[in-house]
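Our collaborator T.R. sent over the components below with a one-line note: 'Predict the complex.' Nothing else. No constraints on interfaces, no templates requested, no preferences about which chain binds where. So this is a plain run: every listed entity goes in together, and whatever single assembly comes back becomes the starting point for the next discussion.
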Amino acid sequence: MMTRRLRIISAILVALLALSGAAAQESETTVPYVQARGFNAPVLEGWANQSTDENAQFHYAEAKATIRVTIVAADDPLAAAQAELAEWLGAEVGPPVFSDKVNLADGTWQVFIFDIDAATTASVMARRQEAQVIVISFVETSPEARTVMLTLAQTDDSLDAATPEIARALTELADFNISQLQAVGTVALPSGDWHVHERPGLSAMGMIFGNDSYIALQEGALADLAPLADAWNRTLLGFFVTPDNSGYLALGLAAAFIILGLLILSYFWRARSMRQDLALLNALAEEDD
Amino acid sequence: MKTSYVETVLAIIGKDLRIELRSRELISVMAVFALLSILVFSFALELDRAAREEVVGGVLWVTLIFASLLGLNRSLAQEYDQGNLDALLLTPTPRSAIFIGKFAGNALFTGLVGLLLLPLMTALYGMNLLDGRLIATALVGVFGFCAVGTLLATMTAQTRAREALLPIAMLPLALPFLLTAVRATKGILTGAAEWQVWFQLLAGITVIYFVLCLLLYGYVVEE
Amino acid sequence: MTNPLVEFYSFMTFFAGLRESETTLTIELESKPMPPLLRALTVATVLGFAATLYLGLFAAGTDIQQGDIQRIFYIHMPSFFGAFTAFGLTVLGGVLALARDSDKWDKIALAGVEVGFAFALINLLTGAIWARPIWNTWWTWDPRLTSAAVMCLTYAAYLMLRAGIEDANRRRAFMSVYGIFAFVTVLITLFIIRIVPETIHPVIVGASPQNAQGSFEATSGVILALVPSMVLWLTLMPITLIWHRYRLEERREGLDRLKLKALSD
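Returned assembly:
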């Protein structure tokens, strides 16, 4: 009777264990992030993953483009961006040909474009966080083209196309007027619907997300601009820093240990005071004798 | 001659009613307290119409529970101080009959205060609380927490710091009633259909608590 | 007695007076030696606690959204279930104390409240400390937080009420009844997410409410660290602590009897 009941109970336990194991297996999903030094960058599909423990890096051979996310100890975003590019590319990095500021959900980002040499153009977003600067850069090294990625604050929020910002980027970076381009409609990418403007040898794409315009420009004929724009946008929106709150963890552990410790110590205290009472009783009994 | 269960219960209720009719001690204290509490709340909260809809249920139930605490304390303390309960326990009265008798008296007084509050709050807060569903909710809620209250007051009346201990012991246990009754009231006032769910929950909790009290009362009066 | 932990433990209990000293006393407190099972349980609890801490703090990966603070969860949720076991033993103790007029079960009920109260406090405090970086506030009057606080207060009321009753038989009856009723607040805290859906408290096992904030995925790493911790806090932790507390209460009663005897002599 007893053994049968035990058998049933152990069967239930084994079944429960198997179920929880299966559940654990099922909920195991591959986290689509590269984790490096406390930050997380989304893994870009179709790009070669060159990430290390120090930084997240993806390369797109067809367009000779690389997206790289890193954190450097610095105070000034511009200096940090220049130093980071210089170290990475082994080239001298002069002043940016374009710089601006934009507010995204996670803070204020500095936007820089550097023309490093005839072939290389770097688009950088940098944000200071405490004593560190997060640098997200897009570098394109093809001599046939100059590709630029920009994030600009939307100037007219009644529009659902990034036209004014594309116009600004065109005039400031490529000496072109948007009227010289032809609007060729929209292209649907995973990141959203992008408006495309084109003329031979020049293409511009723009998308509104929140109150910001995401823009991609390409001078010269190279590969399709769309996957580059999409990857850049995914990196910017998907990137996040894992908060450092180990201090709170220590506090929580301390609280748990203090309460448990007080409970157990109170056992000892109470036992001790009982011993003292007992000793007193003994002393009284001896006095009586 | 053997008195039946129902007769015993009725005798206890009748005794409490007679005491009350002569002294008018309990109901007047509870009613004045409830009235003051309603006034204090309406001054303290300075409510506009939208906010009133939100909080009127809470005001009603908090007032009722505090008023019932006053009544319960006195009702049970008087039993012990005058030796009534000891006398009752000497007779072969079923303990559950004593519980039902004392509980019925308390629920009756608290229910009366509740029925007094509804038209009063209707006038003071400018919203119609004289709704059949709301009266039903009020009666069920009062029924439930008076059951727990009678049990706990019987316990605390036998301790030294009875006035202080009853609220401490009762308020946490009255929370399930407060939670469901306030939500049912709010649902009825705002015309939300979910009031029925809350009302059913309230009724369910009331039944569970009442049965528990009935079963356990014997243990708290026995020496 | 070759295990150094057992040695250390017996030294500590001897030191603190949990065990009788060798000196002869004219008045002796009859004290039972620590049962071998309790000894084994104590060692298992200490080792298990260390092991689950290792699993939660080092073996499990860091949650990339919440950071390190997510690890507090391996104590936060198990401590509630530890309180659940302890308060459940109080109910069992209450029922048996009433049914059998048993002082033994009344002592278990009291020990359950003390241990459960400590666990519930750990649960509340770790929750508040987690909420600070995740919800950006130490405390919010969320339905589940409120009911957990009310649960703590109910058992604080139990201890206050118990201290206010002098007569032992009356105390046993009253506190058994109160302990049974108080468990309703534990059940409400457990099920309130199902009853009141507008809580922001996340549910880890099962679907979180729509507006839950700060939930995280129960990956196999989380489950690996969580399950042993849950088992430990559900069983070994409360049972070992309650047993020790029970023995302490037994000794206290023996001492009280001796005091009465000394007074009457």
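Summary for T.R.: Confidence is low (pLDDT under 50) at residues 24-31 of chain A.
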